[in-house]
Write a structure and sequence with these properties.
This protein has a 6-stranded mixed sheet. It has a 6-stranded parallel sheet with strand order 9-10-11-12-13-14, with helices on both faces. The chain has a 4-stranded antiparallel sheet with strand order 15-16-17-18, with no helix packed on it. 57% of the residues are buried. The chain has 2 domains: 62 residues, Urease, subunit C, domain 1; 307 residues, Alpha-Beta Barrel (TIM Barrel). By secondary structure, the protein is of the alpha/beta class. β6 and β7 form a beta hairpin.
Length: 395
């Protein structure tokens, strides 16, 4: 197979930048990384990066839709268009994420994502190693924009059917719900990355969940407990919450929606400084409104989901925020501007850090010889110019 050589770029490594770099790709794998001044291979396809940046492809662990499709629509067409949309924004590994909904809707979502996951080799689609089982096991008072009618407590009779598909890689449940520990136990048995989200859990409930295998909290500060909300639920003495538990426990990771609408610049700066790029992910948590005109859409299933209004910047419900409306490249630009973090650390939060936590970092997540050539070429203002997906075999 002909070599691909991407040259005249600044390569973004996990701990530094390499200016005037070139990356050689052979058979879908990174074969060499060096300086552009080296003699170009005679048998190679050359891509001039024009002084831009070359990054590993993004790994999005929390994403509901895009391009008009929501994964909960339960059709291959909806899943495909959502995946294509995020691929254009630099996401090369995606974990489609459920909302609340009926068991039938969730099973249809899983099946549709399995179907589209087999199409990665056709081009223009990210890898789908599995899905993120996010809804329906939320706290009743932290449902947020998701359909409340589709929320419920976990039962083995329900969740064991999802795990039987062998396609759940990330598993979320509010830690305070009855049945949560049984859910975590089965998720752990199925080698999932276990998270707590849409929860009003106290410190002690988080600690119990941690002992059961929970290691991550979804979208920090959004639909999560704080000292005040725990006091409203459990009275006094005031207790620690999810926020304090994550900040305190170095084994916990979390994520931020860096769209500039969910969190202010100082909160993004705080998250970066206090949690750090090895424990903090960037996620899109995006709705079907990504790359769509201003207007009204549904979050969740097209027939039973809640109505949201996309204003060109973010999706909103009548009472608050309703998911982001932008891709991962936007999150990278916003996080860079707000945190003033080195570019390599911002890219790490969108690629290597989630890959490490999901156990796929030997294959994807950074520029390293031998890894799959999942690559994103940016211009100097971090606008995506081209996306490559290397070796198309499943993760």
């Amino acid at each position: 197979m002909k070599k691909l050589v991407i040259h005249n770029v600044t390569a973004i490594f996990p701990n530094k930048l390499l200016p005037d770099a070139r990356v050689v790709v052979r058979n879908g794998r990174i074969a060499e990384i060096g300086k552009s001044s080296k003699r170009m291979p005679d048998d190679a396809e050359l891509v001039d990066g024009k002084g831009g940046y070359l990054s590993p492809g993004f790994v999005d662990v929390h994403v509901h839709g895009g391009g008009g499709g929501d994964f909960m629509d339960g059709t291959a067409d909806a899943a495909r268009v959502a995946c294509q949309t995020h691929f254009r924004h630099g996401t090369t590994t995606i974990f489609p994420t459920t909302t609340t909904g009926t068991p039938e809707e969730i099973h249809a979502m899983i099946q549709a994502c399995q179907t589209v996951g087999k199409e990665t080799a056709t081009g223009g689609l990210p890898r789908i190693p599995g899905i993120h089982l996010y809804g329906p096991f939320f706290s009743a008072d932290k449902v947020g924009a998701h359909p409340a009618a589709g929320r419920r407590d976990p039962t083995p009779e329900e969740f064991q059917e999802y795990f039987k598909t062998k396609f759940i890689r990330i598993a979320t449940c509010a830690a305070e719900l009855p049945g949560a520990e049984g859910f975590y136990a089965m998720a752990r048995k199925n080698r999932c990355y276990i998270t707590c989200g849409h929860s009003n859990a106290s410190w002690s409930e988080m600690d119990r969940a941690f002992r059961a295998g929970m290691r991550h909290v979804d979208h920090f500060w959004c639909a999560m407990s704080d000292v005040r909300s725990v006091r409203g639920r459990l009275s006094t003495p005031m207790q620690g919450s999810m926020e304090q538990y994550v900040l305190f426990n170095p084994e916990m990771s979390t994520e931020v929606i860096a769209d500039g609408q969910h969190l202010s610049p100082e909160l993004l700066l705080f998250a970066y400084r206090m949690i750090g790029p090895r424990r903090l992910f960037l996620v899109t948590d995006s709705s079907r409104a990504v790359d769509m005109p201003v207007g009204k859409y549904k979050i969740g299933n097209i027939h039973t989901g809640n109505e949201i209004t996309h204003d060109g910047k973010v999706s909103r419900t009548t009472t608050g925020l309703g998911s982001s409306s932008v891709g991962m490249d936007h999150m990278v630009r916003t996080m860079k501007a707000c945190s003033k973090a080195p570019l390599w650390e911002v890219i790490r939060m969108a690629s290597l850090t989630p890959a490490e936590r999901l156990g796929i970092d030997k294959e994807v997540g950074s520029l390293k010889t031998g890894k799959r050539a999942d690559l994103v070429l940016f211009n100097k203002t971090l606008r995506v110019q081209k996306v490559w997906l290397g070796d198309n075999s499943p993760l």
